[in-house]
Every structure is written in structure tokens, then in C-alpha cells.
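Tutorial, part two.
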Amino acid sequence: MKNTALILIDLQNDYFSSFEGAKYPLTNSEEASKNASILLEEFRKKALNIIHIKHENPNENAPFFQIGSVGGQIHKSVEPLNDELVIVKNFPNSFLKTQLKEVLEERDIDSLIIVGAMTHMCVDATLRAAKDFGYNCTVINDACATKDLEFNGNTVSSLEVQNSFMAAFEFAYAKVESTKDFLKGLNS
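Running the prediction step on this input gives:
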């Protein structure tokens, strides 16, 4: 596991309905962050690699994650410790115009455990880029959050969005596991 990193993507206040003033709450962010925090604690106990990804929107009229806003801060449930790396990004793909790939190479990481938000946007973009770079990827499905989407006048429920993306991930990009199943393997 020393060549593995936990990547926590965009678990930030604006995505949490429990956060007063949340600008873009997701359907299951509370459950996802609870599971992500369980994984985070296990990685900390085992002194494994942890990388937090934080999205900042440089547009001053951004609908959420404005630079310097409280809504753009990483949620308290997965708050980084002082010695944990936080990579700031401005695009859905966590590799694009960031030092993520270089950090993974420096740490000799070849496997990524991916959690976070939004499943259909930044988790998807980051996972696909990671796979293209040759990383072995696992997505923890119950530690990822999304929301209802609209298309062609139809609402696609968050459950349908989540299941569709997880099915696509598992088809060609990643192993998809629950927190419980991943921890069984980690602790065996």
C-alpha cells in the first residue's frame, strides 16, 4: 500500500446542505464525506499517502467555490492536517495545470483510491485522466457525491447519475468498491 494514495476531490462546504450558505448542495454529500473521513482516518493510522484536492473558481462571479470564500474551504469532516498536501485546481480534471502528476511520481505512487465530488464532473475527469496516465484506480462509490441533473427537459435523479457513472467507471476505468469492502481488503 505504500505506492497507493487516497485522493479526496472537492469535498468543500458549498456542496453540503448542512453548511449555512451552501451555494451548490449535493444530494448525498453528508454520507459521502462520512465515508471519506473513515477512509482518511485509516490512511492516517497507516501513514499512507493522502492528497486533498481543492477547487477554486477564479471567476469573481463564480456560482460556487469562489477564491477565499468560506464555501470554498474543505469541509470539516475531511479537513487536512497541517502536513497533508492540498492541491488547488481550477478545472474538473485534478491533473490539468496542477502538480498532481509530479507529486505522484515523486512519491512513487502507482495506485489511486478516489473519493469526492462531483461524481459526474471532477471525479469522472480526474479518474479518466489518471487511467490515461497509467494509474491503477479504485473509486469508493459511497464516498462520492453527485446531484440531480437536467437534460432535455428531464430530471435525471442523483441515484441514476451515480449508478450510471459507477457502471461506466467499473466497465473500463476503475475497480469500484464500497467503503466497507475496501477497508476489508486494506485491513486483511
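The two ends are 12 Å apart (CA to CA). In part three we will examine how such features are distributed along the chain.
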